[in-house]
Amino acid sequence: MRTRRVFLNRLDPIREPVDAVVVIDVLRSFSTAAYAYVAGAGTIYAVETIAAAFRLQRQLPEAVTTGAVGGGDPIPGFDFGNSPAQLQHVHLAGRPLIQTTAAGVRGLTRFRHARALFAGSLVLARATASALLELQPAEVCFVITGEWVDRDGDEDVACADYIDALLQGEQPDPEHYATRVRESDFGRRFLADDNPNLPARDLDLCAQADRFDFALTAAHVDGHLQIRRLRSGVAGHPLAAAGEVRNALRLPDTRGTLPAARTDAC
């Protein structure tokens, strides 16, 4: 299985990834999405613009909104910021969630035509690797969303490095990658204690490797880009049906396996 990296903010348009794509946003989009599912969210709708998010909310009056502008400040009028800590003790009771962020959601939208699309974060790393091993695509492309002019994006590169190592059959120490998340340029901002919209608790929740036992996939359904939870090897799930073709990828009958991820709740 080949792997490669692209950076969302310096994309080479010549060779677009078309096989399996993992858009990574550790701090914080897809960590927040993972905690939202654990909090009981129904479907998560990934919406690129704030205006489109409000339009969708008018169509889905039960939906809650979560998101942030570039730099991490919450979006005025949204129910929650892009913050796993805000969702940790919330009970969403199956309500749909609309997510709009400047990096992760933008990345998903950019690669929405990939044959298999994943929303990646460190809390889901091992489960994401397991799902990819089941799919056995010819190539996996990791999209790094966290690199900006003032940020190195190493929190996302670390996550890509970890998943890549698992795909190659290695068993690295996950704490090494969690440390890189905490020590990345953006990670250190959560520890500076000078911005209430970047709380240290968010960093703690995002830097827990393999906390959950599910991956997040994304696909267009009924005209909307939806993020859905996928547990590796669950019988009957479209992405877990052995030998069937889904999103133009043939799933193997013999699958690689990894030790189970943690299954603790929030």
Please tell me about this protein's structure.
The protein is α/β, with parallel strands linked by helices. It has one domain: putative 2-phosphosulfolactate phosphatase, CATH 3.90.1560.10. 30% of the residues lie in helices and 22% in strands. The chain is built from 9 helices and 13 strands. It has helices at 29-38, 50-59, 84-87, 104-110, 125-135, 154-167, 174-183, 185-191, 200-206, and strands at 2-7, 20-24, 44-46, 64-68, 97-101, 116-120, 139-144, 147-148, 151-152, 214-221, 224-231, 245-246, 249-250. A 5-stranded mixed β-sheet has the order 4-5-3-11-10, sandwiched between helices. The protein has a 4-stranded parallel β-sheet with strand order 1-7-2-6. Helix 5 packs across helix 6 and helix 6 runs antiparallel to helix 7. The protein is globular, with a radius of gyration of 17 Å.
Topology of helices and strands:
Elements: E1 2-7, E2 20-24, H1 29-38, E3 44-46, H2 50-59, E4 64-68, H3 84-87, E5 97-101, H4 104-110, E6 116-120, H5 125-135, E7 139-144, E8 147-148, E9 151-152, H6 154-167, H7 174-183, H8 185-191, H9 200-206, E10 214-221, E11 224-231, E12 245-246, E13 249-250
Parallel strand pairs: 1-7, 2-6, 2-7, 3-5, 4-5
Antiparallel strand pairs: 3-11, 8-9, 10-11, 12-13
Helix pairs in contact: 5-6, 6-7
Descriptive terms for the model:
single chain; 266 residues; alpha/beta; putative 2-phosphosulfolactate phosphatase; 5-stranded mixed β-sheet; 4-stranded parallel β-sheet; 13 strands; globular
